[in-house]
Amino acid sequence: MRKPLMALAIVACLIMSVVGGFIPLLQGWIFFVFALYLLATEFETGRRWVTSARRRWPKLDEWIVKARDHKWAPSHLKKFEDHTDPTK
Length: 88
What we know:
The chain is mainly α. The chain has one domain (2-84). It contains five helices and no strands. Helix 2 crosses helix 3. The protein is globular.
């Protein structure tokens, strides 16, 4: 039951990131990074996808580093960044 709920949460975060792109008060990139966080922590395949995406797109890597230091960021985001760091 946990995996389908996490998949639903990932989709919801991705939708919120798109909505945040159109509404200036809502920071869409935070929801995008949170969706990647859920994907990488719940699914091994997701972890590989995020690691390769961070290697391929440096801007995504910047967003993840920026989100790690954000005041609303979950405390586990540092662990996520360590698991998906393409330089390791």
